[in-house]
Structure formats: structure tokens, C-alpha cells
């Protein structure tokens, strides 16, 4: 009766005269193994054709999708895009959250080691450098979805055109006749914050509008900072007639701040966001915003990781998908009310 | 050199003198196999110890979480709850969508067959009866998360207390002094729609308020129907002073309808929703709503499916977790403006 014969780590350990954990350490490329031991184990691994990863015909049929937090407003869009591609390829999508902390991240890495994975899609910018390294050692293909433009990982990366989005939103307000346009910025440590701000400034400059640093409020992409940032802007001696909040959550915070001040959107003040989260078409009023193609980014990440898993090459180390202005009801010409 | 010896379906097929698909059909419990063939194949499967599913000590370390559509506003909360429990148990969560169509559903079932799974959590009410049956035949533990109260599956089910939620929301409006309270209902075919409506009617009756059928508008839980339903209510000869929309999406539609009519929430009309989706704390005004504990439902589903995977019993075939009224800024006493 024929059957698949596979050498096990236990068998290698027995033949090498070492413990099973020692063989595991060698397999996983860990440093804490004596050089002679490592050489002996590696020779046996090679002689018996031990493969940590499944061979092409015998793949795990699983891809890992890893977030910092699943409650991120981005998460569901990216999951949807990834799943659509993997599902059609008969590959399962394992979704995990590592919560930016080393405990869950290490747990996740252990879970990953305990079973096979054809590849990992990281939607996170804060994975510890040590974990980066271990992932590379495991030899599993990695693709990064990085809407924030903040990764330092040496892996194919999929982002979005943040600068062009900042430009388009500001041009839209300029075309409507606004000249005093407030901006609520994201966290300065993220490249995407800077790119959106630069796009805003480039549009003003191209239109011959003099910049005013007081019109730029500092935020952190979250709702609360849009609320307070908008209040700061509206308390200026000469407040803006439009506010470009560089995330949708901050835009919703700005709309609430304006409502509480008795100001109507868009009759009194126009508001533009950035992201196009699924729910902002249901805000009151429906939000004009810059669409990040999150589901498409997920799809491209899935296609890329499946190509890498098949041993194929990837065209470009970093791809930026186009953002797009979506005009709804939160913007109008100044003084239209 | 010792190695793990595993019998394959191909080998069984060769020895039995039948095709590989025939052996697969026997393994998967399908009916379309001649009785003698089935007996011969089953004898060989048993003789060589073929196991379709992994044995207890050798589990897949994977749980499947299956949605109709991942873009459902519920999805991310449930994923978050499930992942928190599975992650801590070193089990991966494979997220899939079957899109309510038989093609992808069958694809999903094939994907599931191609690898092991310790259990399936279904967040869907529309899985084809044929697929139900096949899942049962596969012998994989199933748990249903069923916020809509619509399942007919013979499996442990986790829901929420819809009737009590409908009661609590209506009592809140009554306590604020409202007497003409509109209701926007969900799809009549879902039990949860009926339960929420019955809770609304029970609260009115307990307060001695005469019901008025014209105050009940038909919706379908989606945004658009909240918008049109609210317009219908406001055009009554004696319009309501408060609207209880029995889903958050419909409540956001109602708020937008009121804004377009120049009515302020809550000064002119109060609005209550149902679900407590993550984004409604950022609506303008922040929404008073009935919280469905979706993440907790996901956690309980994960714990239940892991118990079933270990061969343990489940206490109760159907558990309903408590809903809870969350008071924010979309409700006030009538005439307060």
C-alpha cells in the first residue's frame, strides 16, 4: 500500500542525538544553537529532504491576514477584498489581530508555526522588528498593505496615492469658490499624514492662495481630534469657510462640532473627509471624501501573496493604487446658505 | 528512518478498483454510490485507518467563520469577538463569505473539504438546505450566530434579546414624555423584526398609550428604507414626536430625512436605533440606540465551537445575550427645542 512518507522533526532529533526543541530552533533559524549542532542537524534535514514549508502540490491552502486591531474602520474593507480573491483560489483567509503588543504578536507567530501558511498579508505598521526578522526566517512570503505609508519592512507593499488625494480634495473646495480652507492633519509620524498635507498645500499654491499656518490643526485621525480641531479652526478671528479633515473619522467629528455650534453643513461650512469608509455615505449630510480603494488594495495584496507562494516574481516592490474624490452633500459654494 | 505513513484516497481507489471521485463521494457521505462499491471502499478506509478529519491530539487549529457578506455592518464586530477567543487558544480563524449564492457556497464547502477545520461558526441565515445537510455529514461541529432569529439549522445558536430591546427603547421615549412614537420595522420574514415590534407595542400598552397602526412604517433594515419610512411618518396628519427605527442604518436614514425636512434631532424629533454599530457614536448627533452585544456573541460562539471540537457538551441549544439601551444625544423630551 503506497503512502506519503514524510520525515518528522522527532526522527531527525533522534538521529542527531539532540532534543526536538533543538531541531525546531534550527528549522526556524533561531540563533541559540551551538554551531556544530546546527551543522549536524542541517545536514540531516537536507539528507532526508525535510521541508518546513509545504511543496507546491501540497500547499496549506491558507493565507494569513494580520491586523493590529480588527476594530479599525479599514479592517472590514480589506478583509472583503482579500477574501474575494483567496476564496476564488480555494484558499482560506486566516484573520488575526496582534494589538500592537509583543504578547499577542508572539502568540500569533507561534500559532503560525504550528500550522502551514502559504503567505502573510500584514496590515500593520507597528510589528516589532524582532517579529519581522522571525517572519523572514520562516521563509513565508510577506506582502504589506500600508495605507499609512509607514512601513519599513523589506517586502512588497501596497499603498494609496495620499498626496494626489490631498490635492484633489483641496482643488474641489477651491473650484467651489472657497479661499479660506482649514486642514485637520493626521499623526506627524505617519508618512500619509504628511503626503495629504503636502497635497493640500500644493493645491492652494497652484491656485495662488496664500497659505496660513493657523488654518492647519493637528489631529490624530480619530473622531475626537476632528471635533476639537474643527473647534480650534472655527474660533480663529477669520474662520475657514471649508474644512478638509484628512480622515473620515475626523470629518465626522468636525460635522458634530459644527452642529453643536449651530452651523449647518454645507450651507455655513463645507467639510471633506479622507478614506470613504462604508458608513460615511450615511452620515448626515452624506460626506464628500477621498476614496481609498481599501478592498482593491486587499485584492491586490492577495493576488501578490498567492503569486509569491507559487514562486513567481512580483513586478514592483511598492504599488500605490489611485485615490478618488467622491462628491456627496457635505460641500457647497461658500455663502450658499 | 521512521516517518508518518498516511494512506491516500488515490491509494484506496487503486486498491478498490474504483475512481478517486468515487472514494471522495464515500468519504464525504454522498448518496450517489452503489451499495457494493460503498461497502468495499468503506472496508478499505477502515482497514488502512483513513481519517478525513484530524484526530483529537492532532487538530487543525483552525475554526471557520462564515458570513453571507463580509460588508455587513455586523461583520467586523463578530470577527473581533471570535478572533479574541480563538487567538488565545492558538486556533486560527478562517473568514469566508458565501454571498448567498449557491456557487460560492459550494466553492466554500469544497475549500473546507480540502483542509481540516475544528468547527464552523455560521453568521448567516440563508445557507442552502442542501449545504446544511452536507455540513452535518462532514461531521464538523457547527455553531450559529443568529442576530436575526431566523435560523432553522439544527445546531447551537447564539442570538440577542430582541423583544427586550424593543421594549427598552420604547420605554426610554415614553419616560421622556413622548406619546406619539413612530416605529420603522425590519423585514417581516425575520423573527427579530417581529420581536422588536412586539417589544415596542408591549411598552406602549403597559404605559396605557393607544397604538396607532399608521405609526408603524415598513422597512428592511437598510438605510434607504429608514429615509423613506421616516418621511412617510412625518407626512401623517399628526406626525410622531419620536421615531424608533429598528436598525441603526434605518435610524441614520431617518436622521437624514429629518435634516432634509429642516427638522432638528433631538430638538424637533427624537430618534432611537437598534444595533449600536461602532460608527453610530460618531453620527451627528450621536445616536441613542439598543446595543446588540455582537462581539460578545462572537466570543461565545468561538468558545462553544471549541468546546464541541473537544467533544464536550453544550449547555443549551439556544442562548440569547442581553441587549442594552445606550443613551446618547439623539433623544430628548418633546418640545424641548
TrEMBL record, chains A, B:
Pfam families: LacI, Peripla_BP_3. InterPro entries: HTH_LacI (IPR000843), LacI/GalR-like_sensor (IPR046335), Lambda_DNA-bd_dom_sf (IPR010982), Peripla_BP_I (IPR028082). The keyword rRNA processing does not apply. The keyword Phosphoprotein does not apply. Keywords: DNA-binding, Transcription, Transcription regulation. GO terms for molecular function: DNA-binding transcription factor activity; transcription cis-regulatory region binding. Residues 7-61 form the HTH lacI-type domain. PANTHER family: LACI-RELATED TRANSCRIPTIONAL REPRESSOR (PTHR30146), LACTOSE OPERON REPRESSOR (PTHR30146:SF153). This is LacI family transcriptional regulator. It comes from Streptomyces aidingensis.
